[in-house]
Batch of 3 targets.
Target 1
Amino acid sequence: MPTFARQQPNSLLAKIQHQMAKMPKTAPEDSLLLRVLVQSMVVVGIIATDVAAETQMSLWAIPLSIAGSAWSWYHRRGHNIGAKFGLALAMLGALGYFVANLVGSLNDTRLVLAELLVQMQVIHTFDLPRRKDLGYSMTIGLILISVAGTLSQTLTFAPLLLLFLTIAIPVLFLDYRSRLDLSPLTISSPSEITKIGLPWRKLAQLLGIVLSIGLVIFALMPRFPGYQGSLPVSAPIKYERQKFDVRGINNPGYQRKGKGGGTGDLQIDGKGGNGNGDGMLDDTFYYGFNSQIDQNLRGAMKPKVVMRVRSQAPGFWRALAFDRYTGKGWEISCNDKTRKVRRPEWEYKFTLGYPPRNIKTKQIIQSYTALEDLPNIIPGMSAIGELYFPTSEIAMDLEGTLRSPIGLQPGLTYTVVSHVPYRDRELLDAASTKYPQDIIDHYLQIPDAIAPKLQTYTQNLVDRSSQQQVGKDSPALVSNYAKSLYLAQYLKQHYRLPADPMALDRIPDGEDLANWFLFRCEGKSTSCQTGGYADHFATTYTMMLRSIGIPARLVVGFDAGKFNPFTGFYEVSNTDAHALTEVYFPNYGWFAFDPIPGHPLTPPGADEDQTFGALQQIWNWVASWLPSPVTAWLAQVWSLTLGWLVVGLAWFFSLFSQGWLGIFSGSAIAITIAFCCWWGWQQFTSWKHRQWLRKLSPVERIYQQMLAKLTAAGFPKHPAQTPLEYARSIQTNCSVSISGLVIEISQAYTAWRYGAEAQRLDRLQELLITLKKVSNKLP
C-alpha cells in the first residue's frame, strides 16, 4: 500500500503560516530587573520632557507605557503577529499626527519630535521580547532626557538628570550581563533588594566618577555665540491686525483715565496716582515702560523674576528711549511717527537693519522667554539687526525701539540678533563734536529755566576735574567721552540713593527734577539728604550733558540679571529695570553710561563675553572665602590662563569652519593631543608604580614585580587568593617552566612574609629575570 505523505499546504495563507511555524523563535530577555529599570529610564525621560516643556504627556504616556511593558513580559515567548500589525497601524497614525503638528511648529521642532518619540515608545513597549528591543527603549529614553535638557530653563531638570544617571548605570551593567548570556539576576522579595547580586559599591563609585567628570566638563564647557540652524521663537500668535495701534504702549501697571483716554493719558493702576506727582509706584510693573513717564512717583517694587535670557554676553536689555524732558519726567516726542514693520509669511525673521558705524561690532544673539505679563515693548541689546518674533508685524519708533501688537505673555519666546559696537576708547575720544541738525534738535533740548545754572555748574565741574582726580598733573578733560565718564563718576561719588524709598521727599510743585536733585541742599544743614531714586540720577546726568552741548537721551530697560551657571540663562527680575543715559558720538552712534551708585560706570556689552561663565561663577564663589592678597594674585594668574585658554579654544574650533583642510587639521591636532595625554598618563602611572616599589622591602618588591608581569599577560591575582593558591592557578594555565618559577617565588615570599625566614635575594632576582625572559611563552 502506498505510504501517506504529509499533506503540504495549498493556500497562500497556509504556506505563510507554515513558513512562520518553521522560523526559529527569538530568544527572549528573561531579566525582569533589566526590564523594570529600562522602563524606569523611559518614565524619567517622559517626565523630564513634560517638566522642561510644561506639557502633560505623562498623564497618558506613563500608564500606557507601563501596561505595554507588562504585556510584553507575559507575551515575550510568542510571535504576537496580530499585535505587530496593530502596532504598525498605530505607528502610521503617530506619524500622521507628527506631520500635522510639524507644519505649524517649523520655528522649533524639538517638542514635536519629543512628542513623536514618546508616542513611538509607548507603542514600542507592547513589543519588547528581546534585549535588542530593550536597547531601543534605552536609546529613546536617552534622547528624551537630552531633548529635555535643551528645553529646560530651570534647575528642576537637575534632579531628574541625576535620577536618570542613577538608573542608567545599573541598566548598562545588566545589559552587558545579558550580552554575555549570563543568567539573569533575580530577587525573591523586596526586602532582599540588597542581595540581588548587583555590585552596589562599584556602581555607586561609577556614578560618582560620572558626576564628577560631568561637572568638570560642565564648568569648562565654553558658551559659544548663537545657535546653529533656526533660532528659538514661539509658535505664531494670532491677533486683530486692525486693532494694532503702533503708538500705544500697554503696560499692565498703568490704566487709562476715563473712557477712551489718549495714549499718554495714564495713571498708575490701583495706586491712587493722578499723574501729577503724588502717586505711588506699582509694586510689580516698572513705571518707565510708557510713552511718557512721571518721575515724581515714590515706592519700591517687590522682586519677581519676569524674564529669562540666553546670551553669550551680558548686556543692558534695552526697551525704550526718550528724547524730550518735561521737568518732571520724559516723553517720546516723535511717537506719532512710529511705523509698522512686517515680516515675510514664510519665515519668522524681521530684517530691521541698523545704521552703519565706523567702529568694530560683534554679533550677539539673545533668546528671551517671558515668565510674567509684560508690556508690549520688545527688549534687546542695542543695534538690533534681526528679530525673530511670533507675530507677523511689529512697530519701530525713531529711537529704534520695538513694540509688539500684544503684550509679552508668559511663555512667549523670541530671539534678537544685535550687532553691538565695541567701546573703543581711542576712537570715541577722537570723535567729532559736529552734530547733525536732527541730533541737535532732539537731544540737546533743555528747559530755559534751568539751562544757565545747570550749564555753569556742570562746566565748573569739568574745568575743575584735574583737581578732583588722584594725579595732580592729570590733563584737563577735552573729549566728550572723557567728560561723560567723569560726570557719571562724579554723581556716583557725591550723591546717594535713599536707604528708605519712602523717606525721600516728593519734588515740590513747580520745581524741576534735575535742579531739585542737584541744588536742594544748597545753604541747608548737613542733615539734608542729597541724591534721589536711581532714575533721578540718569535724568540729572542726561541734562548735565545736554547743558554743555553733549547730545544725550534717557533709555529704560533691564540689567542683565543674575546668571545661573547651571541653566545658562540670565534670570531677570522686575527690580532690574531702571534708566540710564545714552550719549551720541558722530560716526560711531550711541553709547550708554550709568551714573547710578553701585552700578558699573558703563553697562556690559560686546567687550564682556562670558564664554566661560560657569567657570567664572565657581571662581567667584571660591574667591569669596580667600584673603584679599591671595585673591588678587590668583585673579591675575586666572586672567592670564583664561585668556590663553579662550584664544586657544577659539582658534581650535575655528579650524572646523574652514573647509575640509581645516577639519583635517583640527582632527589631527585633537588626535595628537589625545595621544600625548594618553602617553603622559602611562608615564605618570609607571613612575608612580616605580616609586611605590622603591618603598617596599626587597622580597616584597620582587613578588609585586612578578604579579605585575603576570597581570600584564592576562593572569591577575584575585584579592581573595593566597600567594600559593594563585601559584597553583598559574600552574593550571601555564607551562611547567613558567609555573615552576612562579611557585618558587611565591613559596619564598610566603616563608618570608608569614614565617620571617631570610631569603636569598640573589636567587629570587635571578628567578624574576628568568620569568621576564620566558614571558613571551605565556598563552
Target 2
Amino acid sequence: MKAWLLGGVGAFALVAAGPAWAQQAEPAQDSAEQAASAEADQVEGDIVVTGIRRSLEQGLAVKRESTQFVDSIVATDVAKLPDTTIAESLQRVSGVQIRRALGVGTSVSIRGLRQNRTEVNGRTLVNPSGRGRNADAVADSDYGPLSLFPAELISRLDVIKLQGADRNEGSLSGTVDIITRKPLDGSGDRVIAMSASGVYSDQADRFGYDASALFSDSFADKTFGIVANITYSRKPITDQSFNSFTGYTPITAAFNTGANPRANDPNGDGVPGLYINDLRFQNLEETREQIGGSLGFQWRPAPNLEFYGDAVYSHLDTQRDRDWFSVPLSTSAADYVSYTMSPNEILSAGTIRQVAQTNAEALKVTSDTVSGAIGFKWSTDDGRFSVRPEFNYSDATLDSTQTYLRLTSVAKYNFAFDLNDGGVPSVSQPTGLDLTNPGLFRYSNIFDNFITTHARENAGRVDFSFKPQGGFLSSIDTGVRYAALNAERTSTFRQAAFAGTTPANTFLASAGNSSYYGVRDYNGLLGGDAGDFVTRYVAALPRNIDGLACEAIASAAACGARVVDPLQSFSVTEKTMAAYAKANFTTDLGAMPLSGNIGVRYSDIERVARGSVKRASGLVDPLLSKSRFVDWLPSAALKLELTDRLLLRAGAAKVLGLPDTIDLSPNLTLNRLTPYNGSAGNPELQPIRADQVDASLEWYFAPGAALTVGAFYKDVKTFIVRRAAYEVPPGEVAPDPLGQGFLITRPYNADGGKVKGVEVLFQTPFYFLPAPFDGFGLVANLSYIDSTTALTDRRGAALPLEGLSKLNYNLVGYFEKDGFGARVAYNYRDKYFDSVGAGATAIFFAPNRTIDASIRYEFAKFTIYADATNLTDEVQQKYTETPEATSLYAMQGRRFSAGVNFKF
C-alpha cells in the first residue's frame, strides 16, 4: 500500500510504501515502524489513513514498540508543521524546550538540560565549533546543526530520553537522532518529487523562496537502491529590538554623593542597585541562502548481507546588516541631571548628559557541514549471529567576517530615558538636536574581525549480536567504538579606538568619504508605537568597505598588522574509546509480556586543549591542558504489557554529559569598547554525570491514539554555569576610568542538584465522530520540570537550572479529510533562567507563546499549501532579576509561505 509523505517548510514530497524511509537505531524499532505502517494503512476495515494522521500513528508506534524511552516525529509530521528548522519541530515533543535566535529555533534543551547529543543515523553530527553551542562571534545567531540542517532531508526525528548501553556517551538528558531516508526500506519503487514555495516576512516586507527535489529508485530485482535529495532556500531574517549587549551591572560607590551617601544602595541592605550599561535600539536584516543535500545507497546481494552508505550536506551563506543607535549609561553620579531608582533598586529613569553613538555592522557567514558513513551488515544463515562494522566522518566549518564602525558625537547631550516597567525602554532625543548631521560625529571605533571555526570527527565502530537458543534472552549485543574529535578556531581581530576631536578623527561631510556613511531612517521600529526613541541618525556603511575598515578610515599602522591573535585562537582534541555489552530479554509474567535490556558501557575520554596565555610583560606563552575521564555507565529498561493496550515502562541509567566544546577553549576574547567586556573558556571543565530513573504508564486506547504519563528523576553531580566578573588580565590595563577592568564571562563547574518532572501526552483522531467531523484530531503534551541547585543569586536566593522552564505545553489541532488538511499549533514555554550576569545577577527570559498554522489540499499528483509562523507576532523578552529590568525586547514578525508539491 503506497502512502504519500508530504514535504513542508522547504516542502518536499516523496512516495513510500509500507514503513517510513528510516533506519532504526535498534532492532526493536524496526518492528515499530512495520506495526505503524500496518496500523496506519487500515483502520476500521478499508479506511485508508494517510498524511498527518498516518505520520502521527507511525510516531506513536515507534514510542510504543521501543523498549527505551523514545519520542518520534515521522517525516510527514515534521513537514506538515510550519516549522523552518529541526529545532522548531522538536518543540512538539514533551519535555523538549527550544531556544530561539532572531526568531528562529536553533537549539533544544531536553528535560531542562542542554548537554545532549545530535546525531544523524546514530552517528555524531558536529557543528563548526565541535559540540554544543556554536562560535560566540555570532552568538545572536547560533548556527548549530538543528538550524543548519534542512528539515526536508529528514525521514524521522527520534528523541531518546533514556540512554541504553549501545548509545554513544555525551547525552546528559537525551539524544536527538536525525534519521534520513533509505531507498530499500520502503517498496523500492521509483520516486520523483519536486516542490517550490515563496516566503514572506511581514516585518521586513521582504520575500524569499525555496525548492527541493528528490529521486529514489531500486535496481536488480530491488536488491540495490539509491536515493538523492537536494534543497535550496533563500530567506529573509529580520529583528527589531531594544538590546543591551552587556545588560545590567551593580552600581558602584561612584554613584554616591555627599548629599546621598548610599545612592547606589537605597534600602541599605548591602546589595547595590543595578543600572543598564547601554540603551540600544537595533534594526537587523539578514538574508540566508542555504543548500542541502543527501545521498544514500543500499545493496543487498543476499538476504543476510547488506552494504550501505549515506551522506548529508548543508551549506549556508549569510549576509547581515545591523544598525543601532545607543546611549551609554554610567555609574558616576556626575553624569546625571536627574534619576529615579525603583523599589527594586533598578535605575529605571532619568536624564543623563552623555554622547550619542551610532553603530553599524556588516557580517558575512559561510558554513559547510557534511556527515557520512559507510558500512555493512552480515548475519549467519540462521540469523543467530550478526556483525555490523561502520566508519563515519563528520566535518563542519564556519567563516565569519565582521566589519564594524562606531560613530560617537563630539559633544555630550541631555538624553532622557525610561525603562517603562518591563515594556520597551525609551530614549528621548533632545529638542533641536539633528542626529542626521554628520558634522556632529567622529569615528571612534573600528573592527575588522575574521574568525574561522572548524571541527571534524572520525569514528569507527563494530557491533555484534548473538541470539541464544531457548531461555528468556532474546539477544546479547556487544560493540566497540573509537572516535577522534578535533575543533579549532583561528581569529584575526583588528580593533582600533580613537579619542579626541582632532580633524583627522572628526566625521565631517566635507572631509569624510560620503560613500562610507549615510542616514538611517527606521521610522516604525518596533511597531512604531512601542516607545520613544531615536530612529533617524547618521551611521557608517560597513558593507561599502567590505572588511577593510581600518585601511579605509584610519590606516594599517593605526590598526596593526592583520595577524592571527593567539589569545583568541585555540584547538581542542578529544579521543574516545568505548565498549559496551547489553543483554536483551523477552518473557511473560503470566499473561503479561515483559521485555527489556540491561547493560553497561565503558567510556575513556582523553582531552587536550591548546591555546595561549599572556604574561604581565605582554609576551605570549603557549598553554596546554590535558585531562582524562573514565566512566562505567550501567543502564536497564523494562516494558511490561499489562494488557494489549496498556503498558508500564521503567528504566534507570548512569549518564554522562560533556561540556560544549566552545566552553573548553583556553581563549580570552576582549571587547575594547565600552562597556569593556569579554569571554573566556575553561579547559579544566569536568564532564557532567547524573543518575537517572524513568517510569511511564501508557494507554494506547485506539489506533493512533494514546494517553501517556511519565515521570523522571535525575541526580546531577555538577552543573556548568557561566559567571561574569571584572578582571584585568595579565598584560592588559584597566580600560575604564574606575579601574574595574573587563567584565569577563567564564564557565565553571558548579555544585550539582536534582531535576524531576512529569510528562503527559494525549493524542487522538476523532474517528468516532460522524462525518465530516471524523477528520478532526488533537495532539497535546505537557511537561512540568522542577530543579534544585546550589546556585544562588547575589541576594542569596536559590536559582533553578540554566535553560529550564518549569512549564511547557503544546496544543495541535488538525483536520484532514478528502485531500484537505489544516493544522494549528500553539506552544507555550514558561520563563527560564538563562545565565549569571555581572555581580552574580540572575538573567531570565520571559514566557513565550507562539501560534503556527498550515493548510493544504492534495490533488492526484500535486499539493498546494500555505504555512504561517508566529501569527500573534510574539515578542521575545529578557530581563535581569525583575521584569522591569528589560535587557532585550525583540520583534521578528510573522513569516508566511505558499507553495506546491509535485510527485511522480
Target 3
Amino acid sequence: MRRWRATLAVVGLAAGLLVAGPVPASLAAQAPGPLPEPKVHPIQVTGPTSERLNLIIMGDGYQADQQSLFFADVDRNLAVMWATEPFRTYRDYINVYAVELASIDYGVRCDPDGRVRNSDGTIRDTGEREGPIDAKNTALRMIYQDGCRDPLSRGTVYGGAPVDCQNFAAYYPPGVNPCETGNQAYNRIMDTYVAPVLGIPRTSQNVQSLAIFNTFTYGGIGGTNATTSGGSPQGPLISLHELGHSLGTLADEYPYSSRDVVRNCYTGNEPGSFHHTTYTDEQKMIADQHKWFRWLGEESLSGGTIGLHEGGGSYPCGQRRPSEHSMMRWIGFDLDQIGRENMVARITGMRNAGQMNVRQTPLGTVARDGVLWVETGQPRYHELQVTWRVGGPNGTVLDTHNSRSLDLGNLNLPTGTVVHVEVRDPVGPDGTDWVRNPSTNNTASDSGYNGPRFVQTRQWVLGEETVTPSAPAAEITSATIATQPVAGDEVVFVETNHPTDRVLDVAWSVDGKAVPNPYNSRTVDLGALRLAPGTHKLVATVTDPAAPGVSDRAEWTVDNALPTAPRTLSTPLTTLPGAIEHPVYFDGWDMRLDPRDDQTGYDEKRYVVGQLRLDNDGWFNYFGFPEQPMPESPFQFRHSGTSVKALTYGNLGTGGLSRATFEQTLPDDHPSGGFVPGFGTHLVEHRAIDPAGNIGAAQSYRATVLPGSSPTCTTTLTGRQTRVVVEQGVTCLTNAQVNGSVTVRAGASLVVRDSSINGNLVSAGAQAVQMFGSSLNGAAQITGTTRDVTIAGTTFNGALAFSGNTQVSANERYSRLAGAYGPLFVGNRFNGSVSCSGNSAPVTDFGAPNKVNGSKSGDCAKL
C-alpha cells in the first residue's frame, strides 16, 4: 500500500522567526565572505512543471539572517492571491517555488523612504528612516526608478550594476561577475539554480516570476518579471496588480502618469488595450460588438455596474474603462469580469503556452476492447466536462457521467471506429459564466471559451487487436494537495494508474462514513455533502477490481470551520438602536479588523486575509492603512478619504474607496470632476478568507458620518446636577443626570453626551446645541441657533418646538454639490409632538431616519 502526498512546503512562513540582536546595516562592513548559495524551495507543487503555470518568487534585499522575513512575505502574498479569483479557483493549476537569496545589503536602491533595519532584523516602519541610498547592493539589483530624486517614485525594476561593484567580488562564487545587472543576475540564478529543479528552461512559456523586495515603501512594476514590496501594507495587492500586467496582459486603468499631475484628456485613436475605449455610447458599443460589449450592464465584481467609466490608461478622461474601480485601477479591489475573463485564460493556458493541459492514452490505433483515459486539470470549485463520442467530433455522444475513462470492452465497436473525446472547462455563459468571448483564437487578449485554453480534443482509431491485460496494480498518481487542509466546499480529485483492460475503483469516505459514488468518479464535491462546521477527515481508496487486495489511499483534512474578521471601531458620538450596530461620527471613523481562523491541520500559523465592502461597492482587501505599522493600524474611513503620497484611501464620497488625490478637487465641469464628499449613512461588510480558501460569513454594520465637529468644552458637568444655565462658553453634559431644566443663553453652546435631563430644555440664540445618545423628559424649545444644531440618537419624551435656527455649512463642496442641509436630526426618537419652522433649510437625517410617535408639523412633517 502506498500513501500518495502532493507537495506543499511552508518554509519559515511564520513571522517573528528572526533572531533578535544588533546586526550590521551592511554585510559589506564585515570581512568579505561568500554569500550563501541560493536555495529553491517548492512551496506548492501540483503537477509536472511542463503541465503547470510555474510561479517563481525571488527575494531581493533580504540579508542572510532575514530569510524568515522573506518567507513570511511570501505567505502573505500567496494568501491574498489564493483568496482572489481566478487564482482561488485555479490554484491547482499553478506550481509555486520560492528562491531564497541573500543580499549584501538590506533594502532597495534609491528607496525614497528607506527605513533603518531594526534590532530584530526587520526594516518595517518604526519612524527611523535613512532615505534614498544609491549604493545599496542587493542580489537582484532592485532600484526605485528615479527614487533618489523623486519622493513619489514607486516603479521598482531590475537595475544596473551596483555602485563600486568591482569591490564585492569576494561575495560571489568564482566566475560570477560582481558587476552583473539585475537582469543578468536573474538569468544566472534561474539558469543555475531554478531551471535544474524545474526541469524546464527559464524561457519556457509557462514560467512567471515575481520578485519581492525588502522594504516598507510602496512599490512594484509589471513587465515580463513582476515586482512588489515585501513590507508595504499593500504589498500583496501590488503583486496582484503587477501580475495583472505580466501574466494577464492587462493595462493600467488609473488616471495619471505621475500621481500628482493632472493630464489633459486623451484625444488619440482607439487604445490598443482590450479594456480601454474612446466609445461614449453603450448602445453603439453593443451594435459594433466592440471590446467588452458582452458585459455591459452587469454588476461588476469590483463594484458598481460594468459600462463606460471615464478615465483610464493613465488619463483622467478621454479613455473609458469597464468598471468604476478594479484591481487595475486601484489595488485592493478584485478584477472585474473583463480582467478575470482574460486572466483565467492565461492561467488555464499556462501563460503563453496557450494550451489547457490534458494527458491521455497514447494517440493512434488502440485495442478495440481496451480502456481509453484522459487526465484533466481540476478547478477547486467546479469540474471540467468530459464528453465521449463514437464516430468522430460529430458522432454519437456516450452517456459516461463525465467519466475520465471509457471501457471499450463494454461497447463492442467495430474495427476502424473513431472514438473522440472533448475536455471542456465550462467557463462560458452556459456554465460558470466567467468567459463570454466565444473566440477560438489563442492570442493574449482573444482567448475564448471555445479556444484551446479551455477546450481540448483527442481521438483514437480502434484496431483489430485485443488488449493484453495489465498486472494487478493500484496507485494514486496525482491528487488534490494533501499536505494542507482543503476547503469545505472544494472539489477534491484523484488520478490513478491506468490498466489497459479495466478501470480502477475509487471509494470516498468522510469521517469513516462512505460517500455514495455510483459512477466511480475520481472527484468528490464537498460542498454538495453539506458537512457540519468543523474539521473532517476525507479518504479516497483506490482498488484494483482484478485483485481487490491491491489498493492505495490518500487522505485530507477538510477545513469546514469558517474564518472570521472581528472588528474594532473608533469611539462614536453615539450608537443608534437597531438590529445591527450603527455608530454616528463627525467626518469619519477607523476600523481595525483581526482576521482569524481555526488552523487545525496546519503545521504553522498561516496568514488569514481580511476583506471589507463599502455600500455594496466591491470587496476590498484589508491591509491596515498605508504608511502605518502592520497589523496594528486600522483602516481610516473619511468623508473625502486621506491623502497618502498623492493617492487617497478610505474615501466615502463619489468614486469609491480609492482615488487619485487630484480627482477630489477637479473642476465640477471636468469629465471626472464633481466630487461629492461622503456624508451620510454607509453600510460596511467585512469577512475573512482562510488559507484553505473558505470564505467566512460577512458581518456588517452601518455608520453615519455627519459634517461638522463638537466645540471644545470650557465647562464639563458629570453626575447628578440640578438646574443648569449655560451663560457663556461651551458647557458639556457628559454622563450627567440633570434633575431640572437646562437653559442656554444667546452666544453660548451646549453639548450633551450620554446624559438625561428630567426637565425642560430652552435654548434661544445659542451658537451650537448638540445632543448625543441622551434623553429629555420635558419639553424642548430651540430657537435662533446661529451655527449648529446636531442631535443624534436622543429620545424626546415631551414636545419639541424648533424654529429660526441656522445651520452653517461645515463643508462647502458638499453643500454646493449635494444641496444645503439644515439642522441635523439623526436617528432620534420623538414621543411627543414635533414642530419645525423658519430654519435655514429643512432638518436633515443623513440617511439615519428618526422615529416620531407624536404629531409632526412644518418642516418636520417629513421626518
